[in-house]
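The instructor's notes for this session suggest beginning with a concrete chain rather than abstract definitions. Hand out the sequence below and ask the class to guess, before any prediction is shown, which regions might be ordered.
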Amino acid sequence: MGCRCRPLGFLLGLPFALVALVLAIAGAVVWIVGSLISCLCPCCICFAVIANLAVYLIELPIRILMWTTDQIPC
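After discussion, reveal the predicted structure:
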């Protein structure tokens, strides 16, 4: 088992996570709009795909922080 406390990795990943946070906010807006459009018009299946892509953008800041933290050895 490795060490789980890596403050240096957290600090190094913080700027990238802040940029990803902006993308996550944009992803949330795209997800809401895409979900509304796909509910109103089920024939527009491409909006469901765009909404799923937006969910990935919303999860991006956490993934970046976890990846950066895991790259730093104990």
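Then share the key points. The mean pLDDT is 75. The radius of gyration is 16 Å.
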